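Email to the structure team, subject: 3-dehydroquinate synthase model.

Hi all, the expression group asked for a predicted structure before they design truncation constructs. Nothing fancy, just the C-alpha coordinates so they can compare against earlier work. One-line instruction: predict 3-dehydroquinate synthase, return C-alpha coordinates.
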Amino acid sequence: MKLLNVDLGERSYVIHIGAGLLQEAGRLFAEKGIPHRSPLMIVTDRHVAKHHLAPLRQSLEAAGYRVCEAVVEPGEKTKSLDMLNSLVATALENGLDRHSTIVALGGGVVGDLAGFLAASYMRGIPFVQVPTTILAHDSSVGGKVAVNHALAKNIIGAFHQPLMVLYDTSTLSTLPEREVRAGLAELLKEGLIWNREFVHWFDEHAEALLALDADALREALYQGCKVKAHVVSQDEREGGLRAILNLGHTIGHALEAVAGYNELLHGEAIAIGMVGAAKLSIRLGYPEAETVYRETKRLLQKLGLSVSIPAHYDTEAIMSAMMHDKKFKEGKMVFVVSPEIGRVEIRSDIQPDWVREIIEQLKRED
Ligand SMILES: NC(=O)c1ccc[n+]([C@@H]2O[C@H](COP(=O)([O-])OP(=O)(O)OC[C@H]3O[C@@H](n4cnc5c(N)ncnc54)[C@H](O)[C@@H]3O)[C@@H](O)[C@H]2O)c1
Ligand SMILES: [Zn+2]
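Reply from the structure team: attached below.
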Protein backbone atom coordinates (compact mmCIF):
# COMPACT_ATOMS: atom_id res chain seq x y z
CA MET A 1 0.00 0.00 0.00
CA LYS A 2 1.12 3.56 -0.67
CA LEU A 3 0.29 6.54 1.50
CA LEU A 4 0.18 10.15 0.46
CA ASN A 5 -0.48 13.14 2.65
CA VAL A 6 -2.55 16.07 1.44
CA ASP A 7 -1.13 18.95 3.35
CA LEU A 8 -3.88 21.38 4.35
CA GLY A 9 -3.14 22.28 7.96
CA GLU A 10 -5.91 21.05 10.20
CA ARG A 11 -7.80 19.76 7.18
CA SER A 12 -4.90 17.52 6.11
CA TYR A 13 -5.68 13.93 5.21
CA VAL A 14 -4.12 10.74 3.94
CA ILE A 15 -4.75 9.00 0.62
CA HIS A 16 -4.31 5.22 0.93
CA ILE A 17 -3.65 3.49 -2.40
CA GLY A 18 -3.46 -0.27 -2.84
CA ALA A 19 -5.24 -3.52 -3.64
CA GLY A 20 -7.75 -4.88 -1.11
CA LEU A 21 -8.45 -1.68 0.82
CA LEU A 22 -12.23 -2.25 0.87
CA GLN A 23 -11.58 -5.19 3.19
CA GLU A 24 -9.42 -2.97 5.41
CA ALA A 25 -11.94 -0.14 5.59
CA GLY A 26 -13.37 -1.04 9.01
CA ARG A 27 -9.94 -1.09 10.63
CA LEU A 28 -8.88 2.15 8.92
CA PHE A 29 -12.10 3.94 9.95
CA ALA A 30 -11.56 2.91 13.56
CA GLU A 31 -7.90 3.94 13.47
CA LYS A 32 -8.96 7.31 12.10
CA GLY A 33 -11.19 7.71 15.16
CA ILE A 34 -14.47 7.68 13.24
CA PRO A 35 -17.01 7.22 16.05
CA HIS A 36 -19.15 4.07 16.37
CA ARG A 37 -22.11 5.68 18.12
CA SER A 38 -23.59 7.29 14.99
CA PRO A 39 -24.55 5.45 11.81
CA LEU A 40 -22.48 5.68 8.62
CA MET A 41 -24.09 6.11 5.21
CA ILE A 42 -22.54 4.63 2.08
CA VAL A 43 -23.58 6.43 -1.11
CA THR A 44 -22.84 4.52 -4.30
CA ASP A 45 -24.29 3.92 -7.74
CA ARG A 46 -25.95 0.82 -9.13
CA HIS A 47 -22.96 -0.31 -11.24
CA VAL A 48 -20.51 0.03 -8.38
CA ALA A 49 -22.90 -1.46 -5.83
CA LYS A 50 -23.14 -4.66 -7.83
CA HIS A 51 -19.46 -5.43 -7.34
CA HIS A 52 -18.11 -3.45 -4.41
CA LEU A 53 -20.80 -2.48 -1.92
CA ALA A 54 -21.00 -5.79 -0.03
CA PRO A 55 -17.27 -6.10 0.84
CA LEU A 56 -17.13 -2.48 2.04
CA ARG A 57 -20.27 -2.84 4.09
CA GLN A 58 -19.10 -6.11 5.63
CA SER A 59 -15.74 -4.67 6.56
CA LEU A 60 -17.35 -1.66 8.28
CA GLU A 61 -19.93 -3.80 10.08
CA ALA A 62 -17.26 -6.25 11.22
CA ALA A 63 -15.52 -3.28 12.85
CA GLY A 64 -18.71 -2.50 14.78
CA TYR A 65 -20.20 0.26 12.64
CA ARG A 66 -23.90 0.64 11.93
CA VAL A 67 -24.21 1.16 8.18
CA CYS A 68 -27.02 2.34 5.92
CA GLU A 69 -26.77 2.75 2.18
CA ALA A 70 -28.15 4.73 -0.73
CA VAL A 71 -27.73 3.33 -4.23
CA VAL A 72 -28.28 5.95 -6.94
CA GLU A 73 -28.61 5.65 -10.72
CA PRO A 74 -25.25 5.88 -12.52
CA GLY A 75 -24.58 8.93 -14.66
CA GLU A 76 -24.15 12.67 -14.61
CA LYS A 77 -27.93 13.32 -14.23
CA THR A 78 -27.67 11.93 -10.71
CA LYS A 79 -25.62 14.95 -9.63
CA SER A 80 -28.76 17.00 -8.99
CA LEU A 81 -30.56 18.89 -6.23
CA ASP A 82 -33.42 16.40 -6.56
CA MET A 83 -31.08 13.54 -5.78
CA LEU A 84 -29.54 15.49 -2.93
CA ASN A 85 -33.02 15.99 -1.54
CA SER A 86 -33.71 12.28 -1.62
CA LEU A 87 -30.35 11.48 0.01
CA VAL A 88 -31.13 13.90 2.83
CA ALA A 89 -34.37 11.98 3.39
CA THR A 90 -32.44 8.69 3.53
CA ALA A 91 -29.98 10.24 5.98
CA LEU A 92 -32.76 11.52 8.25
CA GLU A 93 -34.70 8.26 8.12
CA ASN A 94 -31.59 6.38 9.19
CA GLY A 95 -30.81 8.73 12.04
CA LEU A 96 -27.61 10.26 10.71
CA ASP A 97 -26.43 12.97 13.07
CA ARG A 98 -23.51 15.40 13.31
CA HIS A 99 -21.13 12.58 14.28
CA SER A 100 -22.05 10.44 11.29
CA THR A 101 -19.73 9.99 8.32
CA ILE A 102 -20.77 9.76 4.66
CA VAL A 103 -18.86 7.24 2.57
CA ALA A 104 -18.65 7.98 -1.16
CA LEU A 105 -18.10 4.67 -2.98
CA GLY A 106 -17.79 5.27 -6.72
CA GLY A 107 -16.49 7.53 -9.45
CA GLY A 108 -16.59 11.30 -9.67
CA VAL A 109 -20.37 11.45 -9.89
CA VAL A 110 -20.85 9.71 -6.56
CA GLY A 111 -17.87 11.54 -5.01
CA ASP A 112 -19.24 14.96 -5.97
CA LEU A 113 -22.82 14.16 -4.94
CA ALA A 114 -22.05 12.40 -1.66
CA GLY A 115 -19.37 15.00 -0.90
CA PHE A 116 -21.90 17.80 -1.32
CA LEU A 117 -24.37 15.90 0.86
CA ALA A 118 -21.66 15.74 3.53
CA ALA A 119 -20.82 19.42 3.07
CA SER A 120 -24.42 20.53 3.55
CA TYR A 121 -26.15 17.98 5.81
CA MET A 122 -26.45 19.58 9.28
CA ARG A 123 -24.07 22.31 8.03
CA GLY A 124 -21.36 19.80 7.28
CA ILE A 125 -20.42 16.33 8.50
CA PRO A 126 -17.29 14.28 7.71
CA PHE A 127 -16.94 12.10 4.65
CA VAL A 128 -14.58 9.49 3.26
CA GLN A 129 -13.85 9.08 -0.44
CA VAL A 130 -13.61 5.52 -1.77
CA PRO A 131 -12.89 6.14 -5.47
CA THR A 132 -13.56 3.33 -7.97
CA THR A 133 -12.60 4.94 -11.28
CA ILE A 134 -9.23 6.10 -12.59
CA LEU A 135 -10.64 9.53 -13.27
CA ALA A 136 -11.57 9.79 -9.60
CA HIS A 137 -7.89 10.25 -8.69
CA ASP A 138 -8.76 13.80 -9.64
CA SER A 139 -12.27 14.19 -8.21
CA SER A 140 -11.63 12.42 -4.89
CA VAL A 141 -8.71 14.66 -3.92
CA GLY A 142 -9.03 18.37 -3.34
CA GLY A 143 -12.39 18.82 -1.68
CA LYS A 144 -14.40 20.30 -4.53
CA VAL A 145 -17.89 18.84 -4.28
CA ALA A 146 -20.98 19.83 -6.25
CA VAL A 147 -24.21 19.03 -8.00
CA ASN A 148 -25.35 20.33 -11.39
CA HIS A 149 -28.11 22.77 -12.31
CA ALA A 150 -30.03 22.50 -15.57
CA LEU A 151 -28.22 25.64 -16.74
CA ALA A 152 -24.69 24.80 -15.61
CA LYS A 153 -22.50 21.93 -14.42
CA ASN A 154 -21.08 21.86 -10.88
CA ILE A 155 -22.66 25.23 -10.11
CA ILE A 156 -24.06 24.36 -6.66
CA GLY A 157 -21.22 23.18 -4.49
CA ALA A 158 -18.70 23.69 -1.74
CA PHE A 159 -15.14 23.07 -0.67
CA HIS A 160 -15.29 20.19 1.77
CA GLN A 161 -12.19 18.05 2.33
CA PRO A 162 -12.62 14.32 3.03
CA LEU A 163 -11.35 12.72 6.25
CA MET A 164 -9.37 10.28 4.15
CA VAL A 165 -9.30 8.65 0.73
CA LEU A 166 -9.27 4.85 0.34
CA TYR A 167 -8.24 4.03 -3.21
CA ASP A 168 -8.65 0.29 -3.66
CA THR A 169 -7.04 -0.51 -7.01
CA SER A 170 -8.75 -3.90 -7.18
CA THR A 171 -12.12 -2.16 -7.66
CA LEU A 172 -10.82 -0.97 -11.04
CA SER A 173 -10.93 -4.50 -12.46
CA THR A 174 -14.68 -4.13 -13.10
CA LEU A 175 -14.40 -0.74 -14.77
CA PRO A 176 -15.51 -0.71 -18.45
CA GLU A 177 -12.55 -0.53 -20.82
CA ARG A 178 -13.64 2.79 -22.27
CA GLU A 179 -13.68 4.34 -18.77
CA VAL A 180 -10.18 2.93 -18.20
CA ARG A 181 -8.77 4.62 -21.31
CA ALA A 182 -10.53 7.90 -20.59
CA GLY A 183 -9.35 7.91 -16.96
CA LEU A 184 -5.78 7.25 -18.05
CA ALA A 185 -5.93 10.39 -20.23
CA GLU A 186 -6.63 12.51 -17.15
CA LEU A 187 -3.84 10.73 -15.30
CA LEU A 188 -1.41 11.47 -18.13
CA LYS A 189 -2.47 15.11 -17.84
CA GLU A 190 -1.04 15.26 -14.31
CA GLY A 191 2.35 14.29 -15.73
CA LEU A 192 2.09 16.72 -18.63
CA ILE A 193 1.44 19.65 -16.30
CA TRP A 194 3.92 18.87 -13.55
CA ASN A 195 6.14 15.80 -13.83
CA ARG A 196 8.21 14.97 -16.91
CA GLU A 197 9.60 11.75 -15.35
CA PHE A 198 6.08 10.49 -14.78
CA VAL A 199 5.32 11.02 -18.48
CA HIS A 200 8.33 8.84 -19.41
CA TRP A 201 7.28 6.24 -16.85
CA PHE A 202 3.73 6.36 -18.23
CA ASP A 203 5.03 5.71 -21.74
CA GLU A 204 6.92 2.62 -20.57
CA HIS A 205 3.96 1.31 -18.55
CA ALA A 206 1.04 2.15 -20.85
CA GLU A 207 0.37 -1.51 -21.70
CA ALA A 208 0.54 -2.54 -18.05
CA LEU A 209 -1.88 0.24 -17.12
CA LEU A 210 -4.33 -0.77 -19.84
CA ALA A 211 -4.10 -4.35 -18.56
CA LEU A 212 -4.90 -3.00 -15.05
CA ASP A 213 -1.69 -4.39 -13.61
CA ALA A 214 -1.95 -3.75 -9.86
CA ASP A 215 1.60 -2.47 -9.33
CA ALA A 216 1.43 -0.15 -12.33
CA LEU A 217 -1.96 1.24 -11.26
CA ARG A 218 -0.80 1.84 -7.71
CA GLU A 219 2.25 3.76 -8.89
CA ALA A 220 0.36 5.77 -11.53
CA LEU A 221 -2.49 6.72 -9.19
CA TYR A 222 0.06 7.62 -6.54
CA GLN A 223 1.90 9.93 -8.95
CA GLY A 224 -1.36 11.42 -10.25
CA CYS A 225 -2.75 12.02 -6.76
CA LYS A 226 0.60 13.49 -5.75
CA VAL A 227 0.39 16.17 -8.43
CA LYS A 228 -3.20 16.93 -7.52
CA ALA A 229 -2.41 16.96 -3.78
CA HIS A 230 0.53 19.26 -4.29
CA VAL A 231 -1.40 21.74 -6.39
CA VAL A 232 -4.37 21.70 -4.01
CA SER A 233 -2.22 22.24 -0.94
CA GLN A 234 -0.75 25.36 -2.58
CA ASP A 235 -4.15 26.65 -3.65
CA GLU A 236 -7.01 25.03 -1.75
CA ARG A 237 -9.76 27.40 -2.88
CA GLU A 238 -8.77 27.90 -6.49
CA GLY A 239 -7.15 31.31 -6.26
CA GLY A 240 -4.75 30.71 -9.12
CA LEU A 241 -2.37 27.73 -9.33
CA ARG A 242 -5.20 25.19 -9.31
CA ALA A 243 -6.14 26.40 -12.79
CA ILE A 244 -3.13 24.53 -14.25
CA LEU A 245 -5.09 21.31 -13.66
CA ASN A 246 -7.30 22.48 -16.51
CA LEU A 247 -4.87 21.60 -19.29
CA GLY A 248 -7.03 20.43 -22.20
CA HIS A 249 -10.22 21.38 -20.38
CA THR A 250 -11.15 24.59 -22.24
CA ILE A 251 -11.64 22.74 -25.51
CA GLY A 252 -12.59 19.53 -23.65
CA HIS A 253 -15.48 21.08 -21.71
CA ALA A 254 -16.77 22.73 -24.89
CA LEU A 255 -16.73 19.38 -26.71
CA GLU A 256 -18.59 17.72 -23.83
CA ALA A 257 -21.20 20.48 -23.92
CA VAL A 258 -21.66 20.23 -27.69
CA ALA A 259 -21.79 16.44 -27.56
CA GLY A 260 -24.43 16.62 -24.82
CA TYR A 261 -22.46 14.89 -22.04
CA ASN A 262 -23.14 11.34 -23.14
CA GLU A 263 -21.40 10.96 -26.47
CA LEU A 264 -17.89 11.77 -25.23
CA LEU A 265 -16.52 10.76 -21.85
CA HIS A 266 -14.74 13.51 -19.93
CA GLY A 267 -11.32 11.92 -20.43
CA GLU A 268 -11.97 11.45 -24.15
CA ALA A 269 -12.86 15.13 -24.49
CA ILE A 270 -9.82 16.41 -22.63
CA ALA A 271 -7.56 14.08 -24.62
CA ILE A 272 -8.55 16.03 -27.73
CA GLY A 273 -8.29 19.25 -25.73
CA MET A 274 -4.71 18.48 -24.68
CA VAL A 275 -3.69 17.99 -28.30
CA GLY A 276 -5.40 21.32 -29.06
CA ALA A 277 -3.48 23.03 -26.23
CA ALA A 278 -0.23 21.61 -27.63
CA LYS A 279 -1.07 22.97 -31.08
CA LEU A 280 -1.75 26.34 -29.53
CA SER A 281 1.63 26.17 -27.80
CA ILE A 282 3.28 25.67 -31.19
CA ARG A 283 1.41 28.70 -32.48
CA LEU A 284 2.74 30.72 -29.53
CA GLY A 285 6.28 29.85 -30.62
CA TYR A 286 7.58 27.84 -27.66
CA PRO A 287 10.69 25.99 -28.94
CA GLU A 288 9.75 22.66 -27.29
CA ALA A 289 6.09 22.76 -28.24
CA GLU A 290 6.48 20.50 -31.30
CA THR A 291 7.79 17.78 -28.98
CA VAL A 292 4.89 18.31 -26.59
CA TYR A 293 2.45 17.99 -29.46
CA ARG A 294 4.07 14.86 -30.91
CA GLU A 295 4.42 13.11 -27.56
CA THR A 296 0.96 14.03 -26.24
CA LYS A 297 -0.62 12.68 -29.40
CA ARG A 298 1.50 9.53 -29.46
CA LEU A 299 0.79 8.70 -25.82
CA LEU A 300 -2.95 9.27 -26.16
CA GLN A 301 -3.06 7.09 -29.25
CA LYS A 302 -1.07 4.45 -27.39
CA LEU A 303 -3.96 4.45 -24.89
CA GLY A 304 -6.31 3.82 -27.80
CA LEU A 305 -7.87 7.28 -27.64
CA SER A 306 -8.94 9.39 -30.57
CA VAL A 307 -7.29 12.81 -30.87
CA SER A 308 -9.59 14.27 -33.48
CA ILE A 309 -12.86 16.17 -33.13
CA PRO A 310 -15.74 14.28 -34.77
CA ALA A 311 -16.32 16.10 -38.08
CA HIS A 312 -20.04 16.66 -37.45
CA TYR A 313 -19.42 18.87 -34.38
CA ASP A 314 -20.15 22.45 -35.34
CA THR A 315 -17.11 24.70 -34.93
CA GLU A 316 -19.17 27.75 -33.98
CA ALA A 317 -21.11 25.73 -31.41
CA ILE A 318 -17.78 24.69 -29.86
CA MET A 319 -16.58 28.30 -29.88
CA SER A 320 -19.76 29.54 -28.23
CA ALA A 321 -19.59 26.81 -25.59
CA MET A 322 -16.14 28.16 -24.73
CA MET A 323 -17.54 31.69 -24.45
CA HIS A 324 -20.17 30.35 -22.11
CA ASP A 325 -17.39 28.86 -19.97
CA LYS A 326 -16.34 32.46 -19.17
CA LYS A 327 -12.71 31.85 -19.98
CA PHE A 328 -12.55 35.26 -21.65
CA LYS A 329 -10.89 38.53 -20.68
CA GLU A 330 -11.46 41.58 -22.89
CA GLY A 331 -11.99 39.61 -26.08
CA LYS A 332 -8.98 37.37 -25.46
CA MET A 333 -9.23 33.79 -24.23
CA VAL A 334 -7.54 32.29 -21.18
CA PHE A 335 -5.80 28.99 -21.91
CA VAL A 336 -3.48 26.55 -20.19
CA VAL A 337 -0.65 25.90 -22.68
CA SER A 338 2.32 23.49 -22.57
CA PRO A 339 5.70 25.07 -23.33
CA GLU A 340 7.40 21.73 -22.52
CA ILE A 341 6.52 18.31 -21.16
CA GLY A 342 5.96 18.59 -17.41
CA ARG A 343 5.34 22.33 -17.37
CA VAL A 344 2.38 24.55 -18.25
CA GLU A 345 1.64 28.24 -18.38
CA ILE A 346 -1.61 30.14 -18.16
CA ARG A 347 -1.97 32.61 -21.01
CA SER A 348 -4.70 35.20 -21.16
CA ASP A 349 -3.80 36.64 -24.55
CA ILE A 350 -5.20 33.95 -26.83
CA GLN A 351 -7.04 35.19 -29.91
CA PRO A 352 -10.32 33.38 -30.55
CA ASP A 353 -9.37 33.10 -34.25
CA TRP A 354 -6.35 30.96 -33.40
CA VAL A 355 -8.56 28.63 -31.41
CA ARG A 356 -11.14 28.46 -34.21
CA GLU A 357 -8.38 27.47 -36.61
CA ILE A 358 -7.14 24.76 -34.23
CA ILE A 359 -10.65 23.37 -33.84
CA GLU A 360 -10.86 23.08 -37.63
CA GLN A 361 -7.46 21.38 -37.76
CA LEU A 362 -8.48 18.96 -35.00
CA LYS A 363 -11.33 17.76 -37.17
CA ARG A 364 -8.74 16.59 -39.69
CA GLU A 365 -6.24 15.26 -37.14
CA ASP A 366 -5.25 11.60 -37.52
N1 LIG B 1 -14.64 17.37 -7.71
C1 LIG B 1 -13.66 17.44 -8.57
O1 LIG B 1 -12.60 18.01 -8.33
C2 LIG B 1 -13.84 16.75 -9.89
C3 LIG B 1 -12.76 16.60 -10.74
C4 LIG B 1 -12.95 15.90 -11.94
C5 LIG B 1 -14.19 15.40 -12.26
N2 LIG B 1 -15.24 15.57 -11.41
C6 LIG B 1 -16.56 15.01 -11.72
O2 LIG B 1 -16.41 13.61 -11.85
C7 LIG B 1 -17.47 13.10 -12.66
C8 LIG B 1 -16.91 12.07 -13.58
O3 LIG B 1 -16.33 11.05 -12.82
P1 LIG B 1 -16.09 9.58 -13.38
O4 LIG B 1 -15.43 9.65 -14.71
O5 LIG B 1 -15.45 8.81 -12.31
O6 LIG B 1 -17.58 9.12 -13.74
P2 LIG B 1 -18.71 8.25 -13.03
O7 LIG B 1 -18.73 8.42 -11.57
O8 LIG B 1 -19.94 8.57 -13.78
O9 LIG B 1 -18.26 6.75 -13.37
C9 LIG B 1 -18.20 6.34 -14.72
C10 LIG B 1 -19.03 5.09 -14.96
O10 LIG B 1 -18.34 3.96 -14.43
C11 LIG B 1 -19.16 3.24 -13.51
N3 LIG B 1 -18.25 2.73 -12.50
C12 LIG B 1 -17.54 3.44 -11.59
N4 LIG B 1 -16.69 2.65 -10.94
C13 LIG B 1 -16.86 1.40 -11.42
C14 LIG B 1 -16.24 0.15 -11.16
N5 LIG B 1 -15.22 0.05 -10.31
N6 LIG B 1 -16.69 -0.93 -11.83
C15 LIG B 1 -17.68 -0.80 -12.75
N7 LIG B 1 -18.27 0.34 -13.06
C16 LIG B 1 -17.86 1.44 -12.41
C17 LIG B 1 -20.17 4.23 -13.03
O11 LIG B 1 -21.34 3.61 -12.60
C18 LIG B 1 -20.41 5.06 -14.29
O12 LIG B 1 -21.30 4.39 -15.13
C19 LIG B 1 -18.09 14.31 -13.35
O13 LIG B 1 -19.33 14.56 -12.77
C20 LIG B 1 -17.12 15.44 -13.03
O14 LIG B 1 -17.77 16.69 -12.94
C21 LIG B 1 -15.08 16.23 -10.23
ZN1 LIG C 1 -10.76 16.70 -15.87
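The chain has a mean pLDDT of 96. Residues 214-234 form the longest helix (21 residues). Ping us if the truncation boundaries need rechecking.
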